Each structure stands twice: as structure tokens, then as C-alpha cells.
Amino acid sequence: MALTGIEIYKKLPKTNCKECGVPTCMAFAMKLAAGQAELSACPHVSEEARAELDEASAPPIRSVTIGKGDRGLKVGGEIVMFRHEKTFYNPPGLAVLVTDEMDSAEVDRRLKSFKELEYDRVGLLLRADLVACKSTSGDAGKFEALVKKVQSEVEGGLILISEDAGVMEAGLKVSADNNPLIYAATSDNADAFAKLAKDNTCPLAARGKDLNELVELTQKLTGAGLKDIVIDSGARGLRQAFQDQIVIRRKAIQSKFQPLGFPTITFPCEMTDDPMKETLIASTFIAKYGGIIVLSDLNGHSLFPLLLERMNIFTDPQRPMATTAGIYEINNPDENSPVLITSNFSLTYFIVSGEIDSSRVPTWLLVFDTEGLSVLTGWAAGKFVGDAIGPWVKKCGITDKVKRLKLIIPGVAAAISGELEEELPDWEISIGPREAAHLGAFLKQL
Prior knowledge:
By secondary structure, the protein is of the alpha/beta class. The chain has three domains: 5-57, Electron transport complex subunit B, putative Fe-S cluster (3-methyladenine DNA Glycosylase II, Chain A, domain 3, Orthogonal Bundle), CATH 1.10.15; 64-314, Alpha-Beta Barrel (TIM Barrel), CATH 3.20.20.20; 326-445, 3-Layer(aba) Sandwich (Rossmann fold). The protein has helices spanning 5-11, 25-33, 47-57, 104-116, 140-153, 165-173, 190-200, 211-223, 238-253, 275-287, 300-314, 346-359, 375-380, 386-396, 417-423, 439-445, and strands at residues 64-66, 73-75, 93-99, 118-121, 124-127, 130-134, 157-161, 181-185, 204-207, 229-232, 265-266, 292-295, 326-330, 339-343, 363-368, 406-409, 428-431. The strands form four sheets. The protein has an eight-stranded parallel sheet with strand order 10-9-8-7-6-3-12-11. The chain has a five-stranded mixed sheet with strand order 13-15-14-16-17, sandwiched between helices. A two-stranded antiparallel sheet has the order 1-2. Strand 7 (157-161), helix 6 and strand 8 (181-185) form a beta-alpha-beta unit. Helix 6 runs parallel beside helix 7 (190-200). The longest helix is centred in the middle third of the chain and has 16 residues, at 238-253.
């Protein structure tokens, strides 16, 4: 039975050292109880307490990391069925498939798409995460060569796909250091694949013919000491696969059923030959509840909407998206260029900066930290106000860049102009348009 936050707190060291990233041990205990943190974040917990708290501190769906470094992908770790209950934490990984019997030019084309199809959206870099290398030949040498080629050309994580332990071992020989996902252990090869996963300390995917067989398989693998597991129910029809995803999530989160408490992997690439239908199937699993989604190919017109869907679903609704505060140069401003100020709400920043850029007027844009709130909301919350903005403008460094001290504030925040005049007596405070769409004409008049 899961422990309460108070029960967990009694077993923590109570040092309030903040090394876990949380201000107090009590706050950390509450996060553990809610499944929002892992006990490994506490450097001072005793081994005895660690053994007692492991079960209570683990999220109902285990977190599994594939790859290493900046391109490492973390999947799982979810604690709710629906985003509005709290939030979703780890976006599903999108993978592109290559095989060892595929024409070399086709492999190169898919890897090129993997590297080049990247999109900057509201300050986030959207892109695919993994390359799935599949042995269709059964030849260990061919598979090893494919894995070696992929690993040398891309920075993303790898999925190694084969049911032959000898072939898989050849792929791991050249990629184990990159922590690839081994796919897949089945009822026929579970012992051999469990040994490969343990010897190479890599995550292992388990595939059953149905959920019942999958449960038996994960119990066998966890009994062998494996923890980092990704699961596949084996369904290759949309309806059954969709139902399986929901059953797995519901059993793991609502019933705390540990044999299904792992992130999932799905294969839209094996469910249809129609690229557009494959995209629709992939979009279904982004919403419900795929951990990894393997695509047959990457094309901009289909990948971009999938990336946007993923971003929208996995953006925390309780935490505004914020841009880094500071001075932004747009259209190469000089000492005579106007100075505008706005909040660091990402959407506000990108709309305002886009309108300034379109105007072609060289401009200094000051982005003030409102903790991710828009201008009007920030003003109402007491964050976009004169006595906060004034001192920041003085020390942000803009006075060293401009000759004329004139600050243009958003029209919706005109009420703060008097406060700013008191805080910045050397500056001329001017009120800009209420809507960002009117910035172009306003700047051109200047």
C-alpha cells in the first residue's frame, strides 16, 4: 500500500539540504507520495529507508531512458489518466524505421530527414527522437553494419529490432554504450534477451501475443531483476491496439497493477501501407497513450502536425511557457533605435517579435520576467508593474546600447506609465498600441 507524505517524511533525513531540488524534506515527501519525484534524488536517505520507500516513491508507470546525453529520451513516469488531473510529464518518442535490407540510398534519405526535419516553435525545438534499426535479413553482419552506420550519422537514441539473440548481440556490440532499447523479448526468447539486457545494462522491450501473455512476460523479466522495461501488447490493428493502450494505463494508474506499469511502444508503421493513415494512427497513440511511436518514414507534412499535437498535449497547463528575460535585438538595431518592452510569456514574445520583424524597423525589445504571464495578466497579478520594471531596466544594460532613453510600453498596460516615470526619471515613457498587430504601423511612424 502506498505511503502518505507524512509517513514518507518520517523516514527521510530531515536535513532540508535542497540537493533534491525541493526546498524542504516535507515538500519532497509530498512529491514522492504523489509520484512526482524519485527517491534517488535524495543523496542522504539511508539504505534501510530507501528499501522501505522504493515502492512508495515510484510512479505507477516506470520511467525508462533510451539513449544518453542531450538526445536521451525519457518515457513513462506518468501518474494520471488525464492531463487536467495534474499534468503529463514525458512526451512520447517518435522513431523512424530503417532495415538492414533497405537500399543504402533509402537509409541515407531517412537519416537525412531525421536530422533535418526540426522546427522551432515558441522557443521549443520540435523533432523526432529515435531511429529504429530492424534486422529483416537475419544476418548478424548486416545488422551490425546498419547499427554502426546509424549511430555514426545521427545523435538520437536507437531501437534495435530482432528476435534472434545472436543478431541482437551483434547490434549491441557497436551500440551498447549509447543505451539503446532492445526489441523484443517474447515468450520464446525471454531468457536470452533478459541476459543481453542485463549484461549490457540496456532497457528491454517485451512483446506478448495479448495482454495476458504480456503480463506473464513482464513478471518473468522483473523476477530476473530487470526494471527498465517497455511493453508491446502485440496488437497491430488500430482498434485493439487503442483498447490495449487504455487498459494498460488504467490498470497501472488506477489499479496499481505493477506488471503493466511500464511505458508502451506502438508500431503504426506495421498497421497500414497508407502514409496518411499511418499519420492518423500515430496521432491516436500520441493522445492515448503511446510511450514510443515507430513510423515507417519522416515527411515534413505529416511529422510537423504530430510534433505540434505532442507539444500541445504535453505542455503543462499549470505552468506558463516562458521566454528568457533579457534584451533582444530585432532587425539589427543601433543606438538610435526604439526600445519596446513586453512580458516573457512565450506566445506574447513570439507574436510581438514577429510583428517587429515584419515591420523591418530596427528595434530593441526588452523581455521582462513576469513568470510566464501575459502583459495584462502580469499587470493584474502585480508582476508587470512600474516598481518592478523600473529597477530592472536600469540594470539590464539597455542604457549602454541606446542614445535616446525612450521606453515604449504596451497599450494594455498604459496604467503603469506614471509609476515608470517615477522609477525612470531620465526616460521618456511612451504608450504603444494595444494590439501587437498594430506594431508595424506604429514603428514605421516613429
